[in-house]
Amino acid sequence: MPIQNNKVGNEACINSLKIREECWSVVEALNKVVACYRHLAVSVGGSSDSKRLRDELRRTRERAQELALSNRNKLTAALRDKQLTKGDRMELERLWVQFSSGLELFHTDMCKVYELGLSVPLSAGNQPAIQTGNTGSTSAIASRALSVQNITHSESPPNNKEKLEDNELEKEILKVDQMITDMELKVNVLRWTVEATANMNDELDSTDVSSTALLSMDEKESRNCCNGCSLLCL
């Protein structure tokens, strides 16, 4: 009988480790895609804005939602397991905090892209809505950017496809918002009680890696941040 109990215990440990690894891989992938989306969202309304950029944003957004839905289901089921050990629960709660924080950042960026898309829609001539590199006070630049909307609407109103894309983005924002709400209702994880395993000052105290090396590492990682980030991650 003890041998059988040990076997069951080992299988439970293996299953728990497998679930944690799966959730960790999905959270890591989601963080990369969300970072890629934020990287692309910066160019909306600027001189780099184009139909291709909007398509890249849409594809990246769809990929992020797929990862978020998959990870939400796995983490929710794992954290609601009454047989979790204290150590496993702590690890899963850390993943939950990372996941929910990344999802909130993603939701914020989606809202920004939506508002900018309405304010500075793509013109028929595909001209940049906001010219960069201008000199002058910030108030002058802001007023010039605000005046672009009327010019764009009078010369070339948004076509039906742009309206459909805006409506679709609005629906996706509501879905992500509902996902965040459902997560908080299904699993009660108090963020302020979750302890980090890494020291935030480790990177500041390290003198072995130069800033140039860090930049080269960031550039190397940005090339593989996601498949849809081919515009700016060269």
Q: Can you tag this structure with a few keywords?
A:
mainly alpha, disordered N terminus, Methane Monooxygenase Hydroxylase, Chain G, domain 1, 234 residues, elongated, 7 helices
Overview of this protein structure:
By secondary structure, the protein is mostly helical. The protein has one domain: Up-down Bundle (Methane Monooxygenase Hydroxylase, Chain G, domain 1), CATH 1.20.58.70. Helix content is 70%, strand content 0%. The protein is built from seven helices and no strands. Helix 1 runs antiparallel to helix 2 (51-79), helix 2 packs antiparallel against helix 3 and helix 3 packs antiparallel against helix 5 (160-186). The longest helix has 40 residues, at 2-41. It starts with a helix and ends in a 12-residue tail after the last helix.
- Regions with little confidence, pLDDT below 50 for 5+ residues: 3-9, 132-156, 207-215
What is the annotated CATH architecture? Up-down Bundle
Which shape, going by the Cα principal axes? Answer: elongated
- Count of extended strands: 0
Mean pLDDT across all amino acids: 71
Structural class: mainly alpha
Tell me the number of helical segments per DSSP (H or I, 4 or more residues long): 7
CATH class: Mainly Alpha
Number of spatially distinct domains? 1
